[in-house]
Design goal:
The complex is a heterodimer. Chain A is an alpha/beta fold. Chain A is built from 15 helices and 18 strands. Chain A folds into two domains: 249 residues, Aconitase, domain 3; 151 residues, 2-Layer Sandwich (Aconitase, domain 3). In chain A, a hairpin with a 7-residue loop joins β12 and β13. Chain B has a seven-stranded mixed sheet with strand order 4-3-2-1-5-6-7. In chain B, β5 and β6 form a beta hairpin. The chains are: A alpha/beta, B alpha/beta. The structure holds iron/sulfur cluster.
């Protein structure tokens, strides 16, 4: 069996499972946030349940619109806080205590290899970077999990993506991720799992692995996953004291197909509006003028991302007429960025720093785009209207490419900028 | 379960951000959500649905965010059923959960046109375009999903299960 089959077999107390089979799995951890939580809570009450199945396995995070930007969003937060109190949920990350949910979950030790995790958010698949089976579900299904602690899954076919070669300077995990999305397509992995492996992945940092698994859903994927190794265990053991039981794919595991990628020649990639799989090498889109540049989100708001952006921005100023927004994905990352002097570099370059939250990524409350404006963003979606006006344009790229573009005012290969310096 | 209605067609990769744009996620009343259904693609959509219609999409319908508010907005805007070449999985599950019938029906997109009268036999997975005299076979829904839809969604379904224990 492959790693996903093994985890689902264990979660449903079976010796073996195979693709297409429908299993009822026990859930190890369940997460809601401020935009999907209130609806889950409403459904939970409508079902007539009194207690969540396990308040120690429930995690609640306020991150999408924080601090509240309107009375309506304040009301959503209040609904969530009341629920947390009512059910005595200790794993609650209020404004100022956490950050973007998909960063907080692993950072605070709620993600462990071999576990089955659901979140009422599509990018829950990020936790596959730690060898967990993790997937996004809707609010009412979450209510059902709160009641029963179980959920049905169709065991997915799995695509194996095998990556070899080393990155050129300033080419990052995000560029590989966009490249894979372009190759597989926005619907190429619907209902499927994607397992990333190969020497490049083994050499990659935890931050980089999270980018790959995060965007599995951009290919329609049910889950992205990477076999746990020493790096995974080091990270996880430092953050949880609960026992866990990692699994790996068998040597003879079966896959629907295998995609081999050599990244030695890969150049920075950009996903062009309005579809995530519309991916081009940066050289084909240079000279597109930008109004806003955003570094942050559950895809690329981690320390490694801020470091690479700061490296590009050091001693430079952003172009006149461009707004650069930098939002560390968590309080911990923010503090580390402060201590390393990265925040200072950003501010000197002319960037605006936001509190850890989703920010402009979902066009919810800060840094929205006006008609005809163009944004280059380190986030994960460039749908029509995603970051503001339905007549605005979003290009997706790595933090280094976003930073370089903020400096020139046009989409720019960060390597070119560094050569000139 | 038989569903009738006129078709309103869309293309591939209709995402949940256009079905229900992010700024409206602060609303908790489904009737309020319904006013903004499909606003990202067609601000006149709710008028076109009138007192009921069937949405026909292409590949990967409902991709993107996990927001259950997207199928809720469609349901309360009086969309009776969504038929598409294929669905993004969270949207698909959410639709069943809230009692909005969805059918994956390869071959339907490009053939059915806006305004065609459709007759859908959900149990049999049969879609008939009676304006054009065409019949399509959709992927049949497993029994336990039909049970959830018959009960009107997961909440009612669970209430029954808890009640019968
Ligand atoms: S950062 Fe963006 S994609 Fe990630 S959870 Fe927040 S809104 Fe969703």
């Amino acid at each position: 069996m492959n790693i996903i089959e093994k985890i689902l077999a264990r979660a449903s107390s079976k010796r073996e499972v195979s693709p297409g089979e429908i299993v009822e799995a026990s859930i190890d951890v369940a997460m809601i946030h401020d935009l999907t939580g209130p609806l889950a809570i409403k459904s939970f009450r409508e079902i007539g349940a009194k207690k969540v199945w396990n308040n120690k396995r429930t995690v609640v995070i306020l991150d999408h619109i924080v601090p509240a930007s309107s009375v309506r969003s304040a009301t959503l937060h209040k609904i969530v806080r009341n629920f947390v109190e009512e059910h005595n949920i200790k794993n609650f990350y209020d404004v100022g205590l956490g950050g973007v949910c998909h960063q907080i979950m692993p950072e605070k030790g709620h993600v462990r290899p071999g576990e089955t995790i659901v979140g009422a958010d599509s990018h829950t698949c990020t936790y596959g970077a730690f060898g967990a089976f993790a997937t996004g579900i809707g609010s009412t299904e979450m209510a059902a999990v709160f009641v029963t602690g179980k959920l049905w899954f169709r065991v997915p076919e799995v695509i194996k993506v095998n990556v070899t070669g080393s990155f050129q300077k300033l080419v990052t995990a995000k560029d590989l991720t966009l490249n894979v999305v372009g190759k597989i397509g926005a619907d190429g992995a619907i209902y499927k799992g994607i397992e990333f492996g190969g020497s490049t992945i083994r050499n990659m940092s935890i931050d980089g692995r999270m980018v790959l698994c995060n965007m599995a859903v951009e290919m329609g994927g049910k889950a992205g996953i990477i076999e746990p190794d020493e790096k995974t265990l080091d990270y996880v053991k430092g953050r949880t004291d609960k026992a866990f039981n990692p699994v790996k794919s068998d040597p003879d595991a079966t896959y629907e197909r295998v995609l081999d990628i050599d990244i030695s020649e890969l150049e920075p990639q950009v996903s062009v509006p309005h579809s995530v799989d519309n991916v081009k090498p940066v050289s084909e889109v240079e000279d597109v003028e930008v109004d806003q540049a955003f570094i942050g989100s559950c895809t690329n708001g981690r320390l490694e991302d801020l470091r690479s952006a700061a490296w590009v921005l050091k001693g430079k100023k952003i172009a006149k007429g461009v707004r650069l927004l930098v939002i560390p994905a968590s309080q911990e990352i923010y503090l580390n960025a402060l201590n390393e002097g990265l925040i200072k570099t950003f501010m000197k370059a002319g960037a605006t720093i936001g509190n850890p939250n989703c920010g402009p990524c979902l066009g919810g409350h800060m840094g929205l785009l006006a008609e005809e404006e163009v944004c280059i963003s380190s986030s994960n979606r460039n749908f029509v209207g995603r970051m503001g006006s339905t007549k605005s344009y979003v290009y997706l790229a790595s933090p280094a490419t976003v930073a370089a573009s903020a400096v020139t005012g046009k989409i720019t290969d960060p390597r070119r900028l560094m050569e000139e310096a | 379960m038989t569903i009738r209605g006129k078709a309103i067609t869309f293309g591939d990769n209709v995402d949940t951000d256009v079905i229900l744009p992010g700024p409206y996620l602060v609303h908790t009343d489904p009737k309020e959500l319904a006013k903004h259904a499909m606003e990202g693609l067609d601000p006149t959509f709710t008028k076109r649905v009138g007192d009921g219609a069937i949405v026909v999409g292409g590949k990967n319908f409902g991709c993107g965010s996990s927001r259950e508010q997207a199928p809720l907005a469609l349901k309360y805007a009086r969309v009776r059923c969504v038929i598409a070449e294929s669905f993004a999985r969270i949207f698909y599950r959410n639709s069943i959960t809230i009692g909005l019938p969805v059918l994956a029906c390869p071959g339907v997109s490009g053939k059915v046109e806006t305004g065609d009268l459709l007759v859908v036999d959900l149990g049999a997975g049969r879609v008939e375009d009676s304006s054009k005299g065409l019949v399509f076979q959709a992927t049949q829904l497993p029994d336990f999903i039909m049970e959830i839809l018959d009960d009107g969604g997961l909440i009612e379904h669970l209430k029954r299960r808890i009640g019968s224990k």
